From TrEMBL:
Lineage: Eukaryota, Viridiplantae, Streptophyta, Embryophyta, Tracheophyta
Record's keyword terms, sorted: Aspartyl esterase, Cell wall, Cell wall biogenesis/degradation, Hydrolase, Secreted
Residue stretches spanning the membrane: none
Residue span(s) of domain Pectinesterase catalytic: 50-336
A single GO BP: cell wall modification
Enzyme Commission code(s) on record: 3.1.1.11
Enzyme class: hydrolase
Active site: D191
Protein name: Pectinesterase
Reactions it catalyzes: [(1->4)-alpha-D-galacturonosyl methyl ester](n) + n H2O = [(1->4)-alpha-D-galacturonosyl](n) + n methanol + n H(+)
Localization per Swiss-Prot or TrEMBL: Secreted, Cell wall
InterPro entries xrefs: Pectin_lyas_fold (IPR012334), Pectin_lyase_fold/virulence (IPR011050), Pectinesterase_Asp_AS (IPR033131), Pectinesterase_cat (IPR000070), Pectinesterase_Tyr_AS (IPR018040)
Annotated function: Acts in the modification of cell walls via demethylesterification of cell wall pectin.
Amino acid sequence: MAKAILVALFITLVIGMSLYIGIHFQHKHENKPNSTHTTLAYNATVSTTAKLGSYTKIMDAIASAPTYGESKYYIHVEAGVYVENVYVWKNKTNIALIGDGAEVTMVTMNRKVPVFDTIETATVVVEGNGFIAKFITFENSAGDGAQAVALMAMSDNSAFYGCTFLGYQDTLYAKYGRQFYKNCNIYGTVDIVFGDATAVFQGCNLYARLPNRPITFTAEGREIAQIITGFVLHNCSITAAPELQSSKSLVHAYLGRPWFELSTVIVMQSFLDSIIEPAGWLDWPGRQTDKVTYREYANWGPGSATRARVEWLGYAVLNKSTDVMPFTVSEFISGDSWIPDTGIPYNSGLM
């Protein structure tokens, strides 16, 4: 009898330990961070340390990718500062640059106007369709005073996640193509985001860098009525840079100004800080404003009041969710058809 009891106890103990181990490792697996670095098989690696098997230049890693590749070519850009101009040519499709974090992985150069034309100042130029960048800082370090582009994107179905864009005038040139920016930080002064892409910025922070001057967050350049382009700022924060938070009263900013007469910008469900002037939008000398499409919907914060906004024919405050559905990720950039393949989380509709 005693022996039988001991056997039963032993079996019970074994079963109990098995259940504990199974549950323990199951929970451990479920709680494991979904790290990009542990789930991706990189095709190439860039490192400032010149370790065996890696490239020291981002351009060299891009050159190693196949031309007109149909699947993503993942390039791990390790922590470091890469001083180079980077071009993702049109025939280098589906390139994915993955950094170790925007705070530690940076690509930077310092070209500016008038030494270079505006498009030539860009630190990084992306032409190849299907481009992805994650956890990288793109900087133009030329400083204030003239156009100096950090990134120029003319890639269809391109996406940026957890990236930072550092510049002053003309920081981010979203030139054309369907583009998606998620959880990015964008710093600048004049026409911080400009171009004629069909782009959605979701959950991004847009920062004004300098006081005592008019700051314009967007300068969208739609020219052709038959082609739907524009910028959508959705669930974003529009404020002063951290170093200016204690002196925000010196910052005077506008949501945008019309680079061309069909300029299209929608700001919705976003935080607008006190730096936004009551008029909200700034005219561009010589540009008409009756054909612009400037819309605001359900914004909040001390700069969100619309009672003193511009009285342009092309400006309107939207009050119905049905009126802004055309500007959501799913409809404006057909995001449901291609963003899932990037692995970037997003909101298809409204928040």
